[in-house]
Write a structure and sequence with these properties.
Its cofactor is FAD. This protein is α+β, with helices and mostly antiparallel strands. The protein contains 11 helices and 9 strands. It has 3 domains: 113 residues, Acyl-CoA dehydrogenase/oxidase, N-terminal domain (Butyryl-Coa Dehydrogenase, subunit A, domain 1); 110 residues, Butyryl-CoA Dehydrogenase, subunit A, domain 2; 144 residues, Butyryl-CoA Dehydrogenase, subunit A, domain 3 (Up-down Bundle). α4 packs antiparallel against α5 and α5 runs antiparallel to α7. The longest helix has 37 residues. The structure holds acetoacetyl-coenzyme A (CAA) and flavin-adenine dinucleotide (FAD).
Length: 378
Amino acid sequence: MHFELSEEHQLIRKAAKEFAKSLWEGVVERDEQAKFPDEQVRQMGELGFMGMMVEEKYHGAGMDTLAYVLAIEEISKVDASAGVIMSAHNSLVLYGLQAFGSDAQQEKYLKPLASGEKLGAFALSEPEAGSDATSQHTTAIDHGDYYLLNGTKNWITNGGHADVYLVIAQTDSEKGHRGINALIVEKGADGFTIGPKENKLGIRSSDTHSLLFTDVRVPKENRIGDEGFGFKFAMKTLDGGRIGIAAQALGIAAGAYELSLAYSKERKTFGKAICEHQAIQFKLADMEAEIEAARLLTYKAAWLKDQGKPYAKEAAIAKLYASEVAMKTAIEAVQIHGGYGYVKEYHVERFMRDAKITQIYEGTSEIQRLVIARDILK
Ligand code: CAA
Ligand code: FAD
């Protein structure tokens, strides 16, 4: 067993840390104004962060999942919105296109997405199908050489800025989840409109939209995998996606902790730094211990994926635990900062708002427990 990062992984972490420093500038304004970080995402593309696990022959950076996790962690320590933009693009869009896309799909879509030239979004959730993802109402009716797509998708990350959308829809309702397909839809397709941006509690500079499809013709060659593979495609995609969200949660927790540790050494009450009060020390000790546990779980899930071993349960465990640690740590970070924690300049209130979503998206904490329980009981 090795608990040390390789030299290559250390370098990747260093590069991500260096880039993440630039995210501090304007992070409060982007959050307040719900402004998408266009320039920062462009730079992430240039640095290879928008195609991290894609092979170089498809214009990706050819790195492994652990490298990807390290990068998301560092980026989310400063700006969790940038973290989720990167995670949805890499784990939910590029992974599936590389693993299951046809040669033509890889040529046409994967290459410009992996180079960072284009942005991707993944559309599974609907107004009435979130946790209960098999209950798809969006339909993709087979018309010979194309599908006719109708319906609404909800809460889609990168929804307004994406160029390419992977849309999950029901073709044959009699077959249940085995009658679902995953289709590639381009922005600008006739009948495809993007709903208004959601006004969110946290990760405010990532953009979240509903998507509306009215008689959108999707050519058959845009279906990923065999007829009826769409639900399994979504589940397999989410197994890896949950590692990305675990890394985002880990970054939020670690970012809130680092700010709290530094603040606790500066702020004085009753004639000494607050870190000299045992009540504050115990909070810091719990943060350190829980973050380290979340980190080990997240890196282990990434490692299993890189080894080609089963990782669905471990990804769910990492996502469940890291998101709970992110929420708890961020709340305690505000507490350590006292009144200053409640105002925007000190950042920890943003970390607290951002942490909450990690317990909800890519499967709520309850759904992670369901996935874990089914695995251990099967
Ligand atoms: N890999 C491959 N196949 C899988 C799978 C996996 N991990 N999990 C399930 N399946 C297969 C099952 O084997 C089954 O197929 P067969 O009948 O052929 O064997 C099929 O999928 C249906 O599975 P279940 O019977 O278990 O379905 P269910 O309805 O009982 O529950 C669920 C499934 C796990 C709860 C699933 O609906 C789920 O994960 N829900 C949460 C949805 C979610 O995470 N959404 C995230 C949206 S993306 C997002 O949020 C992005 C973002 O924020 C940035
Ligand atoms: P519901 O499924 O209605 O759940 C409501 C509550 O009931 C939750 O507490 C849930 O845990 C609980 N619950 C439900 N079923 C069970 C059960 N069987 N046992 C126990 N408890 C249960 N989706 C995408 O497809 N693509 C995206 O890019 C995307 N990005 C998102 C970004 C944001 C900011 C948000 C808010 C959501 C995003 N989502 C995305 C959707 C997200 O995945 C769903 O919101 C999530 O899966 C929960 O679904 P729901 O909101 O319908 O809640």
